[in-house]
Design goal:
The longest helix has 29 residues. With 140 residues, the chain is of the alpha+beta class. It contains three helices and five strands, in the order H-H-H-E-E-E-E-E. The protein folds into two domains: 72 residues, no CATH class; 60 residues, Nucleic acid-binding proteins (OB fold (Dihydrolipoamide Acetyltransferase, E2P), Beta Barrel).
C-alpha cells in the first residue's frame, strides 16, 4: 500500500475519534496508521504493513487507553457532591411538593424543595443535595 494512503487513513480515523463521543478507540488506530506510513514508504510488503499496523495499533490501545480515559474523565466537570452548599435561583415558581426549574452556575436544573414548601420565582436558595439531575433546595 502507498505511504500516503496510510496518512489519509490516519487522518480519517482521528476525525472519526473527534466526531464520536468518548470511546478513545479510533485514535490509536489512527496513530498506528501514521507509524506505518514511513514503513510503507521504505517499500515493505503490504502483508507486513498490515501485520505491523495491527500489532502497533493494538499495543497502543492496550497500553494507553485506560490511562488516557482516566485523565480525560478526571477533567470532565465538577462532581455533583461539590454542588451541595451552592446558591441557585428559581427560574419559575416551585409548588409545594412539586418540581420546578432553578439556575445553578448558569445551567438550568430540575429543582425540588427539601422542606416541601412552595418557593417563588427569583428566590435565592441553597442546594441541600443532588439526586441525578434534580437539585434539592432550601430557601435562604
Amino acid at each position: 500500500m502507498e505511504w500516503w494512503v496510510w496518512v489519509v487513513m490516519g487522518v480519517v480515523l482521528l476525525v472519526v475519534e473527534m466526531a464520536t463521543p468518548g470511546g478513545l478507540f479510533a485514535v490509536f488506530f489512527g496513530i498506528g496508521a501514521f507509524v506505518i506510513a514511513p514503513v510503507a514508504a521504505s517499500g515493505a510488503s503490504p502483508a507486513f504493513q498490515w501485520a505491523l499496523y495491527t500489532v502497533v495499533s493494538l499495543a497502543l490501545l492496550l497500553t494507553l487507553r485506560n490511562s488516557l480515559a482516566k485523565r480525560f474523565n478526571a477533567r470532565s466537570g465538577v462532581p455533583v457532591e461539590n454542588l451541595v452548599g451552592e446558591h441557585a435561583v428559581l427560574l419559575e415558581d416551585l409548588p409545594a411538593g412539586g418540581e420546578g426549574r432553578a439556575e445553578l452556575r448558569g445551567t438550568p436544573w430540575a429543582a425540588r424543595s427539601t422542606t416541601g414548601a412552595a418557593l417563588s420565582k427569583g428566590q435565592r436558595c441553597r442546594v441541600e443535595r443532588v439526586d441525578g439531575l434534580t437539585i434539592w433546595l432550601r430557601a435562604e
